[in-house]
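Reviewer 2 asked us to include a model.

Predict the structure of this chain.
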Amino acid sequence: MKSEKLLAELNRLRQDLDKDPSDLEWFTLHHVFCFVSYKHGEFQQYLDEVIKPGDEVPED
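Predicted model (structure tokens):
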């Protein structure tokens, strides 16, 4: 599974909310998205190790 697909979904979830640093949900999604984007290579490596054939979410 490509990490870009998961990052895009995480970003979509984040953008569905009003940008409000006082809202814990937005704050959490924003910083997780930023951190995982920054550690993109390590995230892809993690996915390569833990996602087995057949575990992926089907394409829409």
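The chain is about 65% helix and 0% strand. Helices lie at 3-15, 24-38, 40-50. We have added this to the supplementary material.
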